[in-house]
Amino acid sequence: MLFHDDIRDKKYDVDFITSAWAFGELAQAAIDYTLSVRMIKEGHSLERFNKYKRNHPLSRQEIGDIRKSLEAFVQHLVKLRIEPKSLKTPSKGVQQFSLEYSLDAPDALHLALASKVCHYFLTNDEELCRKNIKEIDVLLPANFRTKAAVRRHAS
Q1: What are the residues facing 84 on neighbouring strands?
Q2: How would you classify the pairing of strands 120-122 and 82-85?
Q3: Which of 83, 69, 85, 113 lies closest to 7 in space, CA to CA?
Q4: Phi, psi of 57, deg, nearest 5
Q5: What interhelical angle do 105-117 and 20-41 show, nearest 10?
Q6: 0.70 exceeded by pTM
Q7: Are 39 and 46 in contact (CB under 8 A)?
Q8: Backbone phi, then psi, for 24, in 5-degree steps?
Q9: What is the maximum alpha-carbon separation in the chain?
Q10: In whole angstroms, how far apart are CA 102 and each of 2, 118, 132?
Q11: Rounded to whole angstroms, how far apart are CA atoms 152 and 155?
Q12: What does 22-38 look like in DSSP terms, one character per residue?
């Protein structure tokens, strides 16, 4: 059984949320993927990706395709009862996570936001899980699934 099936079937005694920042990051990944595929098709090397990216905007069709994909993903999250939240960005917290744990800005931002409203931060980033973050429990989804404290117990 997949982790998202467990979430859908309410097998956990926790609420799942995501942030608007996560959607921004997802959109950027989709943009980068679209541009890198275009570069390869045009015979360009990915070594010059950042320069190419600045000088070759997405077409209207590409933008529309990415928007449709993101909207479909949001609807999928709604079906799973994963709530997208808009949270105030705690700049002091971002700086703290970045400095104390040598994190880049996106990871520091996600952890600063999550640590204000969550007990657990789920990620597939094994390196981030090994940082021993003390403000929030950073876990791989597989490790979260085995945590007895979050499992819904049959009545």
Answers
A1: 18
A2: unpaired
A3: 83
A4: -65, 160
A5: 150
A6: yes
A7: yes
A8: -60, -40
A9: 60
A10: 32, 21, 12
A11: 9
A12: HHHHHHHHHHHHHHHHH
How far is it, in rounded angstroms, from Cα 120 to Cα 147? 11
The HSE-up count of residue 68 (CA atoms within 13 Å, CB side) is: 6
CA 28 and chain centroid, separation: 11
| Structure-token pair, residue 102 | 């040598």
20-41 and 60-79 helices, crossing angle to 10°:
140
| Rounded average pLDDT per 10-residue block, the chain, 155 residues | 79 84 90 94 92 91 95 89 80 90 93 90 94 93 82 60
Type and span of the H or E element at 106: helix 105-117
Residue 33, phi then psi, degrees to nearest 5 = -65, -45
Torsion, Cα of 116, 121, 123, 129 (10° steps): 100
